[in-house]
Write a structure and sequence with these properties.
The chain has 340 residues and is an alpha+beta fold. It is built from seven helices and 20 strands. The chain has a ten-stranded mixed sheet, covered by helices on one side. Helix 1 packs across helix 5.
């Protein structure tokens, strides 16, 4: 099955925005400290098995529910209007992929209206919604502010053994466009990272793959997620808080080659990484051309506290992934999209 059906309707590019993430974890106490005291977000405790973080007037940007995954289990996409919602629903159904209407309770927990979910790559459920519920309550948080709006709230990076299929998936569903590539070598392993955008943000999805080997060295389905802080001072202060509170730092402060974002990477209580960034480039669709960059950073982003034991663990995970084929969604991935 190909992805041609995705083009029967007008493009939805620009009407799609990363809206929220659902994390399943049993480490609520650690996440509470990490989200509020380190990163600096607003916390709403719902009950013993549910809590939410806010970074703007949306009721929910991160929903944490109790469970064993220690991972991101769902990605929520905010759509501009009901027309876009119906276009995407029609695409998914036309490709033979099942969809499920969200219950009133599921929508309430996510702070949205008109919720629909369907399977996504690597077992990450994709959810779409039209209208976020806005909270009248003032934000109580250490951060001075976050950048969301038309760009969405940040991005998600995923490692994959089937990167062309994953790119095909997001092209079919959201008309995602290739922004650029990065080629990088880490500990002798060659990586290619594909950056996809669905609006003016440089990328909402990054797909990292080991070149020449069908292995995945990352335990979690999501390698990292990104939120964009409003000020350089906010970046520096949150970096200090992560250190002072004793949370693991994955990569020190540095600047990326492609989107020029200044950022650092902390390790969440669930094990995947959390990037706090500042001032990435905004795409001008009239002039942008995809290019390939060598290395992820102009400067900085050096690994923090990585030992030979950590590297061996990554190799073991990579070897283990050979025995567990990556979950794909053939109906929406089609034959995939090879590199340009």
């Amino acid at each position: 099955m190909t992805t041609d059906l995705a083009y029967d309707a007008p493009s939805v590019f620009g009407a799609v925005h990363l809206g929220y993430l659902v994390v399943e974890t049993d480490r609520f106490a650690d996440w509470r400290r990490f989200g509020t005291d380190a990163i600096g977000m607003h916390l709403d405790d719902l009950d013993t098995g549910l809590m939410r973080f806010r970074i703007d007037d949306h009721e929910c940007r991160f929903l944490l529910r109790r469970g064993p995954a220690e991972d991101v289990v769902a990605i929520g996409w905010h759509l501009d209007d009901h027309t876009t919602f119906e276009q995407i629903e029609a695409r998914v159904r036309a490709h033979g992929v099942p969809v499920a209407e969200g219950t009133a309770e599921e929508a309430r927990l996510r702070g949205v209206e008109r919720l629909l979910s369907f399977p996504g790559p690597k077992g990450i459920t994709q959810e779409i919604y039209t209208t976020p519920v806005l909270s009248p309550e003032p934000l109580r948080m250490l951060a001075s502010g976050w950048v969301t709006g038309d760009s969405g709230m940040g991005h998600v990076a995923i490692t994959s053994t089937r990167p062309t299929l994953m790119r095909g998936y997001f092209n079919t569903v959201f008309d995602a466009r290739l922004t650029d590539y990065i080629d990088e070598t880490i500990s002798g392993v060659k990586l290619r990272i594909r950056f996809l955008r669905v609006n003016e943000r440089h990328h909402s999805i990054a797909i990292a793959a080991v070149r020449g080997l069908p292995i995945d060295p990352v335990r979690t389905r999501v390698q990292h997620l990104n939120v964009q802080v409003a000020t350089l001072d906010g970046l520096a202060r949150s970096n200090d808080r992560v250190h002072e509170l004793g949370f693991d730092m994955a990569l020190s402060v540095g600047q990326h080659t492609n989107d020029k974002e200044l950022s650092y990477y902390a390790r969440t209580p669930s094990g995947f990484e959390w990037e706090v960034g500042w001032n990435p480039v905004v795409i001008d669709e009239t002039t942008w051309q995809p290019t390939t960059h060598q290395g992820i950073s102009i400067w900085g982003h050096t690994p923090v506290g990585q030992t030979i034991v950590d590297k061996l663990a990554q190799f073991r995970l990579g070897a283990r992934s050979l025995a567990h084929p990556e979950r794909t969604v053939p109906g929406l991935s089609g034959t995939g999209i090879p590199d340009d």
